[in-house]
Amino acid sequence: MADIMTNQVTGARTTTMDFKTYGPAVALLLLCVIGFMLNPAFLSEGNITNLLTRSAFIGIIAVGATFVITAGGIDLSVGSMAAVIAGVMIIVMNNSIDTFGTGATTVLIGCGFSILLGLGAGWINGMLTTKGKIEAFIVTLGTMGIFRSLVTYFADGGTLSLNHDVRGTYRPVYYDSILGLPFPVWVFIAVSVAGWILLNRTTFGRYCTAIGSNEAVAKYSAIKVDRIKTWTYVLQGLCVAMATIIYVPRLGSASSSTGVLWELEAIAAVIIGGTVLKGGYGRIGGTIIGALILTTIGNILNFTDVISNYLNGTMQGLIIIVAVLLQRSDWSRRASPKN
Amino acid sequence: MKLKTAITALAISGALALAGTASAQEKIKIGVSYPTPTHAWAAGMNWHAEKAEERLEALYPDVDLILVNSPDPGAQASALEDLVSVHQIDALVVLPFESEPLTDPVLNVKKSGALITVVDRGLSQPGIEDIYVAGNNPELGRVSAVYMKSRLKDGDNIVVLRGIPTLIDNERFDAFMAEIEGSGINVLDHKHANWNRDDGFEVMQDFLSRFPDIDAVWAQDDDIAIGVVAALKQAGRDGNGMFVVGGAGMKETIKSIMDGDELVPVDVLYPPAMIATAMDVTVAAFKSNGPVAGRYILGATLITPENAASFYFPDSPF
Question: Which chain B residues are closer than 8 Å to A54 by Cβ?
Answer without folding.
Answer: 202, 205
